Automatic annotation (TrEMBL):
Its EC number is 3.5.1.2. GO terms for biological process: glutamate biosynthetic process; L-glutamine catabolic process. It comes from Microterricola gilva. GO terms for molecular function: glutaminase activity. This is Glutaminase. Belongs to the glutaminase family. The gene is glsA. Signal peptide: none annotated.
Amino acid sequence: GTLPEADLVIRLLDEAHARFAGVEDGAVADYIPALASSDPAQFGLSIVGVHGARHSVGDAGVAFTIQSISKPFVFALMANELGHEKVRELLGVNNSGLPFDSVLAVELNPGRTANPMVNAGAIATTSLVPGADAAAKWEFVRAGLSRFAGRELAVDEEVYASESHSNARNEGIARLLEGYGRIYSDPIEATDIYTRQCSLLVTTEDLAVMSATLADGGVNPITQERVIDEDSCKRTLAVLATAGLYERSGEWLYEVGLPAKSGVSGGIITVIPGKGGLASFSPPLDDAGNSVRGTLATAYLSTTLGLNVFASQ
Ligand code: GLN
């Protein structure tokens, strides 16, 4: 399969931007102090096809921190390292139905971590990263996500410091997991590496390449590098379909019909399996923490471009 022809893709990307740029609903995240100053007007969209075609509109070159969109890529790297059975056993792959930072997701879930797309499961995923010390583990994560993006990614030190100084909740989740034997290295070190991975700077152009790599069975369509094996890629998409948008994952799949992942800085990646990757950025969020304009634009594009994976044609 391929995306529809370039002219139509460009026209509908422009149309989606024009249609939803004026929507004023939602609020920027402020529980991480440095995110509170995000510009609510920013809005960018990018799409990358598995054959390398790239189109963008709006603020597609604006850098922002990746936040929770790092979760599927670290999970994919660990599935690639350990195999899909091991990561399912250690991390879980069921939707929690609860907010991303929920402690109840840990308490009420028999597997404790619930899945790798909420904070508990994501911190546990990062605790599995190989390396002799924290610096080596961090480099594994940074280099791995950079291969998905096809360029060297770097941390926004201000956002990293800001979240590090207001990180009691994530450290608490990691300690709780430790109590259940569901974290696999030092919990505070794992939380720190997780916080760094969330602070990596990306644009929607980067995220669309990263997303297209997941659409392409693990091969980056721009660099042609195989980043992860095909099986790990397929498993990652299954987790995104069930748990990529926190407690709104069901509604998202119902409306959009594609695996996706959101983050609190306002990004969303959407994977069009076998065809390409879409990315949006707009900071105002709904009450589950998903970008309002990003959700609207993605639903519009899925419908108009005919991308829903459940459609018969
Ligand atoms: N770094 C953020 C946190 O752990 C990421 C959360 C998110 O994007 N949902 O709270």
